[in-house]
Specification:
single chain, 646 residues, alpha+beta, Rossmann fold, 2 domains, 6-stranded mixed sheet, 5-stranded mixed sheet, 31 strands, 24% strand, disordered C terminus
Length: 646
Amino acid sequence: MSVKADRVFISIGVSKPGGDLEELPGAIKAAERMAAWATAQGYATVLIHDRKYQEVTVDLLRKEIATAIKQIVDETALKRLVVFFAGHGAALAVGDQYWILTHWKKRPTEAIKVSSLQRMLEYYGPKQVAIIGDACQEFSAKFIDIVGSPVLDMPEPEEEQRPYELDQFFAVDAGKQAFMIKATGGQEDFCLFTEVLLDALEGDAPQASFEQIDGDRFVTSQSLALYLDGNVAQEAGKYGVRMNPRPKPGFYTDRIYLKLPPPATASPPAPAIDFSVEEVSFGSGDTASYPSAGGGIAGEQQDTGGAPIARSVEKIRLTLPSSPKSELAAQTQAILQTRETQRQTFADAVGHATVRDHFETGCGICISGAEIAKVEASLGEVSPVDGQPNWFRIRLEDESNPLGWSDTLVTLANGRVCSACVIQGFIAGLHILDDTSLSLLHRPIGAAEYEGQIAIDLLARAHAGLLSQDEIINAAAFLRYGKHRIITLGCIAAQFYDTIRDVDSLRSMASFYAQHQQPVPLDIVLYGGGRIVESEGRLYADIPAVPTREPRTPEEQRQRFTFDATPGFERHPIAGRIPWMRHAWGAILTAKCDKTAEPWRKQAMAAMAHLAPGTFTNVVPDGRQTLVKLAGVKVMKRKAQQLLSM
């Protein structure tokens, strides 16, 4: 690692992850080129790839990253940390992104869980973090068992969480593929997104791509995002493939990545170099070859309107394939059709599942799609409904209290155990689609039959990988609007906000539940919605107040609750001891826990090892006892307690 005062750049490339995944030698090239750029810009640079090291593991990354951070913070504050990754990637849901390491097939924790890493870095004190991923976010059954890791351990002694400014630059959106170019003619393989990124970072972009500040020209987080938005898809299209990046600029103090020289006569473009190419998709494992001859130039030298710039890395010349694109177009269409089929299947199955509109007890669960062996409630009594083998009343310990809840374990005939937190005044609808897909929605007692259909369609689109970047933010606003009527949706919205580490929105959501006299779903608190306290087997949240902010999208502008100030609460009841959704389990290690809640955290980490695939929490048969212990099904039978905020 080269030493510099206050900035660190971690550049990671994994080209040979095994597990029947395609080798990606371009990932090494990408990591090396990004590290060279960072070193030239004065970053303390750490380069890790599987040509330099025999294997890239969580242990190796933890050691190298922690050491790099420590060398800086022992001397001064860590101003900026950049983490770059090139290689195979996966996504189990929107916002649930993983970067694949060498032994991912042997151990499900051998992958970087991006959202968990982002949360853990809040304990390490950087003022700014940039996450750059040149990898797929493809939904694929081969990655269904991945759990991933935050990579870093909790610091000792434990530090306070400190929110930071966050830039995110991802090659593609959730559910999509990124591409590597296999080159011949003396050229090395390279990654398309990284090359477009470097064109901007090296100043090889049109004049309009730079931001003018006091007469000088800069590459800022905002101008970089605009450049990627406007050029990645264009360059990918020249190869007949689709790549729509997902840049999310978040720096607002020091926004600068590069300062350009003063304007001067532009240098002429260098001659094009033609070479044949074939594409390899990151993450899917599928390979398709497309021969290339001469043609137009993708990413050729641009007129920057300034003096010649000495690049930190040589410029790779991209050439336009001359082969017909009909085969690629057909392949793309087939992928879209498959996703549409997945969306329709989910929407039909969940939308047509019958959910009762009332229970005499004021609380219950309706299960469909699988044979049930047993239903147990941690804080209530379960009784079946005559003539309906999969409908169950649940009488909570304090059925008159709107803050009442109970973790409910549903054991299927095949031994798998699904978890659903039931809440007084709501009916939980649990639908088992298949061995890897579940749906869980909470609807108020007496809700109309049509209520929830919009939410079901939204979940179906997310399930099939059909939500775009803008739709994610707008969907989060919609989900927050409906979360008090269809309470599960708050967990979905929280997952979106966790992806961009919008902690204020998480805390506002938690406050909304408290204001509506509802318990806060555990997932929201885990992501950052408050501090967790345990008392007599129940979890409570200390929820900080949030000030007013500016709306970020037209959808938010129409929904004042997304940016208005919200009050704080102390010891407000949390709904559940078990995370509602699989994604939230990755937040257990990084959640802010009072010392009283540390035994709960330990129990949850033990149960986490038994998670089964699925959007919502379920465990394999061998994990049943760990989930029973975590829920407290046998040990939490006691007299009803006062559940109102203290």
